[in-house]
UniProtKB/TrEMBL annotation:
Modified-residue entries (N6-(pyridoxal phosphate)lysine), positions: 214
Listed name of the protein: Probable hercynylcysteine sulfoxide lyase
UniProt similarity note: Belongs to the class-V pyridoxal-phosphate-dependent aminotransferase family. EgtE subfamily.
Domain Aminotransferase class V: 18-384
Entry EC no(s): 4.4.-.-
PROSITE patterns xrefs: AA_TRANSFER_CLASS_5
Function: Probably catalyzes the conversion of hercynylcysteine sulfoxide to ergothioneine.
Keywords from the UniProt entry: Aminotransferase, Lyase, Pyridoxal phosphate, Transferase
GO MF: transaminase activity
Names of the cofactor(s): pyridoxal 5'-phosphate
Pathway stated in the Swiss-Prot or TrEMBL entry: Amino-acid biosynthesis; ergothioneine biosynthesis
SUPFAM superfamilies referenced in this protein's UniProt entry, alphabetically: PLP-dependent transferases (SSF53383)
Length: 391
């Protein structure tokens, strides 16, 4: 059974606000804060090096928890911890060899950070960037993708759930098509891990990037990269240090095995321990329970907002995530956000520059994004809808 009162007690901030920005940076459970503060206090007593050495097993457990959540084999060699989803995504992307004439496919809902990296490397290497069209529902057009694929495609960049709406793209189908021509699939799961089922074994993705601060309710400055263990061994990261490699002779070095080659030695130990606490909290609640609670709240909010005459829902796709996007007639999205914030209701605005191709094609310059997590009550959602109606 899902105990709403318990999770609200564990999340003091949700009693002070109607918090609908877990797609941005969610409210961590109290145990996350306590874990981080306890470690920082320990650092003041014995210094960061010794304090970190005391927690090596707990840091290893962070990877095991991620592997459990994703159904990933060999966590020690398939999971690399990082400071963000963008860091993880770019670390993998820049390790994939690209030459003149090679092709990279992106989707219409590609996130700006990913697109910028792709365009930069294309300019540097002579690689070609092609966009996979969306179908009538807004998701990846699988027929169009199949027609674009050939043996020059090195990588398909796939956004699982975009930042600007409730669309969920079909992953396993994209992977199956891409692998036919030997292309790798890099899954941007920044907005899906923690709110949607993500099983890397079933999906077959070659790599996956995600953040801690959103649906996993972990601190900012945390993230991870999943790489198929056998693939990681074949990749050379663009940057290395003494954590990702060993200096073995005056002119020699050895790269770390597996995904560890994507990790730098220096990191925020307190944040990673907090990340581990957030993961344990999720696993103890039961991921399937969490996914169901998020989906139910998003559906409830989406349906309620659609009944308002001045609101235009903007979510695409046959399958929907916990992100609810909309506009209010006659009120700029930034004004909607600010007027709601004055009533302690927290949403954010997604601008065209974040998902340029999709929002340009739809003629949208900005939209309001609400993302209710499982700690949001239905009374909160009703109050929010009433406040939007007043706008």
């Amino acid at each position: 059974m899902f105990d709403l009162e318990r999770v609200r007690e564990d999340t003091p901030g949700c009693r002070e606000t109607v918090f609908l920005d877990s797609a941005g940076s969610s409210l961590p459970p109290q145990v996350v804060v306590e874990t981080m503060v306890d470690h920082l206090r320990r650092e003041t007593q014995i210094g960061g090096y010794r304090a970190g050495s005391e927690r090596l097993e707990d840091l290893a457990e962070v990877k095991r928890s991620i592997a459990t959540l994703l159904n990933a084999a060999e966590p020690a060699t398939s999971i690399a911890l990082s400071d963000s989803a963008s860091r993880s995504w770019t670390d993998f992307f820049y390790a994939v060899p690209l030459h003149a004439g090679d092709r990279v496919l992106i989707s219409e809902v590609e996130y700006a950070s990913n697109a910028i990296a792709v365009l930069q490397r294309a300019r540097a290497t002579g690689a070609i960037v092609d966009v996979i069209p969306s179908d009538s529902t807004g998701q990846i057009d699988l027929t169009a993708l199949e027609s674009l694929l050939d043996d020059r495609v090195r990588l398909v960049s796939l956004v699982h759930a975009p930042t600007n709406g409730g669309l969920v793209n079909p992953v396993a189908e994209v992977v199956e098509l891409a692998h036919r021509v030997g292309a790798l699939v890099l899954l941007d799961a920044c907005q899906s891990v923690g709110q949607l089922p993500v099983d890397v074994a079933a999906l077959g993705v070659d790599a996956l990037s995600a953040t801690g601060r959103k649906w996993l309710r972990a601190p900012r400055g945390t993230g991870f990269l999943y790489v198929r263990a056998e693939l990681a061994a074949a990749l050379q990261p663009a940057t290395l240090d003494l954590g990702s490699a060993a200096w073995t002779a005056a002119d020699e070095y050895t790269v770390a095995a597996g995904a560890a080659r994507f990790e730098f030695w220096e990191h925020d130990v307190a944040a990673r321990l907090g990340f581990g606490a957030a993961l344990r909290y999720l696993l103890d609640l039961g991921p399937d329970t969490v996914y169901a609670q998020v989906a139910e709240r998003a559906d409830y909010l989406r349906t309620s907002l659609a009944e308002l005459p001045n609101v235009t829902p903007l979510d695409l796709g046959n399958h929907r995530s916990g992100i609810v996007s909309f506009t209010v007639a006659g009120v700029e999205p930034e004004n909607v956000r600010d007027r709601l914030a004055a009533d302690n209701m927290i949403v954010t605005v997604s601008h065209r520059s974040s998902t340029l191709l999709d929002m340009t094609a739809r003629g949208i310059s900005a939209l309001v994004r609400a993302s209710p997590h499982y700690f949001v009550s239905h009374d909160d959602l009703d109050s929010f809808v009433a406040a939007v109606a007043c706008l």
